[in-house]
Amino acid sequence: MTMLVMTGTGTGVGKTITTAAIAALAVDGGQRVAVLKPAQTGVRPDEPGDLADVRRLAGDSVTTLELSRYPDPLSPEAAARRSGLPTLDPGEIAQAASDLDTGHDLTLIEGAGGLLVRFDGTGASLADVAWSLGSLVIIVAEAGLGTLNATALTAEVATKRGLTVAGVIIGAWPAEPDLAALSNLEDLPVAAGAPLLGVLPEGLGKASPEEFLAAARAGLSPWFGGEFDPELFAGCASAEK
């Protein structure tokens, strides 16, 4: 059994698409996959959330579980306070992940925003969940200017909290990368202190399941069952510029 904690350097970096891509490859490889979304914010009860995207892209065989949903697009703690709904306890999240892990080969825990976004008034965060589970952390980062600092901060706090960052993935690679994005292919692994494990194209969430699986295989490392080679990708991307 394997558990991976998926965190981002911020909001809108492609974390859900990256989670779905890892799940799709694992399912295609014959694994039983679960995705846990502890807190979904900014979505009403009658609207589809991130897990609906995961199932649409990775397939209905993926087990999905959402623990709490808050309508306001805020941090889980702030959204819970504003709505008057209960906050989440990291122990509750860890228990749910452990329960899923017993019946699956791979369990992905997707956070809300970054590693230290608060779940409750005590400051409990995804970092606490990862520590209690002893699971590896995958950082999903942006491609362009400003991403190195955000990635380095995420990796540094993870390390100081006793967590292991397995790698970094660029969640939305632009169709026309600029100089900063191209340079970051080399610099992001240094900032993360971990290898570049994938680069996924922007707009991938609009792909059909078949197209999505093909892009996931091309864009993710063999560590996930893909074919991504960071040196080859960097060379091709620079040549196209």
Automatic annotation (TrEMBL):
Binding site for ATP: G12, V13, G14, K15, T16, I17, D50, E110, G111, A112, G113
Keyword Magnesium carried by entry: yes
Reactions that this protein is recorded to catalyse: (7R,8S)-7,8-diammoniononanoate + CO2 + ATP = (4R,5S)-dethiobiotin + ADP + phosphate + 3 H(+)
EC number in record: 6.3.3.3
Catalytic residues identified in the record: K37
Chief place of localization: cytoplasm
Function: Catalyzes a mechanistically unusual reaction, the ATP-dependent insertion of CO2 between the N7 and N8 nitrogen atoms of 7,8-diaminopelargonic acid (DAPA, also called 7,8-diammoniononanoate) to form a ureido ring.
The protein, known as: ATP-dependent dethiobiotin synthetase BioD
Native source species: Amycolatopsis iheyensis
Gene responsible for this protein: bioD
